[in-house]
Predict the structure.
Amino acid sequence: MKIINFCLGILSCILCFWYVDTLIPYQLCQLEHDSLFVLDAESFFHSFCTVGGFGGWLSAWGLQSFALPHVGSLIFILPALALGVVMYILLCRKGLAEVFVPLTAVPAACLLFSQLDYYYSWQGSVSTLLALSVLAWVDMIGRMKLKIALFSLLILPVFWLLGSAVTVYVLSGTVLFFSRKTWPYATLPLLICMLFAGMVAYKGLSDSLYISVSPEFYYSRQLEMPLYHWLATVSIVLLLVVGCNLHDCTSRWRNYWRYGFLGMIWLLNGSLFYHYEPLFRNQKNQTLWQLNHYSFMEDWDGIIKMFPPSQKISNLLYMNYLNRALAEKGVLVDSAFKYRPYGAASLLVAENNTGAVRMLLSDVQYTVGCIAESQHQAFEAQTALPGQYGIQTLMRLTKTNLIQGHYRVAGKYLALIGKSLTYKKWALYYRQFLYDDKAVEADKELGDKRRSYRQQNNFSMWRGWRADLEAVLEANPQNTKAAAYLGISLLLTKDMAGFVRFLDTYYGTEALPVLPAVFQQAVLVAYPDNGERWKSFGLSSQVTTDYDRFRNLYYQTKNSFNQKDQMAQSFGDSFWFYLMFVK
């Protein structure tokens, strides 16, 4: 029986690892990008100065490895799997029959469900595991009076170091250590816990008494916590209540009944997890986090490969990431209409207060050279993060301050990043640019961005994004990315008058030495039947031939009920199709 439980337990662990490693790897990357583990004495001792600080510091140690392939997945599921082991140890000491051992997987699954919620901090799982581990250590003491005394004395340290995981500690300890005879005294640990929680809330160290003793302590304050995050706490306590009374009531069963019952429990655990896990995993968010990770790693080909050409992308956030990747590869203009865009928001979405959108806006602004606005959006993204700072935002703020010559501020960011284990080399590399304008200007990335930086003071986005792009091009006429974004934004809004001014201003300059095919298509619309203008813009014979074919097909299918579909087959990736059929 023990061998069967052991083998099935190992199989369950392998399946959990496969599940996380296959289905949510980029959620782990996002968690890593939104955090920063600082390894120094100051941050370590500071963790003892706040409620739950030590649990947060310890969880940050593990978070720094989440972006590592396979290793991050293993670390992510470790608290949930270890919780099952601790529950097994606690219940076996109470004489739990081997046939009921699979029930210890239920709290582990519930805790893993909570971890699948991006807004539930991994700290909650680590703290719950530590709280139960302390309880298992106390349970090793032989004398019951000493056990109860130590259990009661540790309530305050557990609460201060781990946070609301003390609720699991107190409720579980009450079930384990108090019998029917001593049950009236069981209220004492509960009163101690509530007293400490009330004092913490009264002193303003926690938002409320409820948050101090509930899983919401580990949940993002920007959202309302779903009630299912109580499942782990409730299942742990209920299993201890039931498990302490589930002795070997199956001793009279025949072996095949015992093995059949054992298999049924394992099958039930697996079925419940398989059936309910999609409720806790949002596939759209997984795609968004994958795009953000590729953007963070500057894997532009990875982003482009995610979207086959001619695929209509309805999500504007996805479209922003894709267009940024196309711009970084230098093919934005040629590919802009291959993915069926919709309006200027396909290039730059409207801002909101979520960190993901703010960081995306910062990325796009950084690509085109709007450095001040990129810094503004990165700072806003940082304030939206649960920990108030993350490595992705800090790296962006470091670069923007180096570009602007704010070396003292950049130095503070580099000092913080330099204390991390994972990004210490990155910080060391960028330290060479501090107080060295020549080094910044000579660097391929920083130098190009500095040339695009406007020296005069003004409000970013005050007159709109197009005005900012024009100012960037005025500062750096070689900025082809800004020219591509400006020209495409005019076409996406069907502003032909603005596009004509754009051509008159930038055609023939370093920003737009020749017209890409899409811009040539727009010239035919802006100057119909004007051969001289066509010649002055260097229109190719292929574009003019395609234009004649488009007009002929348009008039041939004018009275057809599915004209749009017929036109899309041959010209769906052209500006002409967008102009005529995309409302």
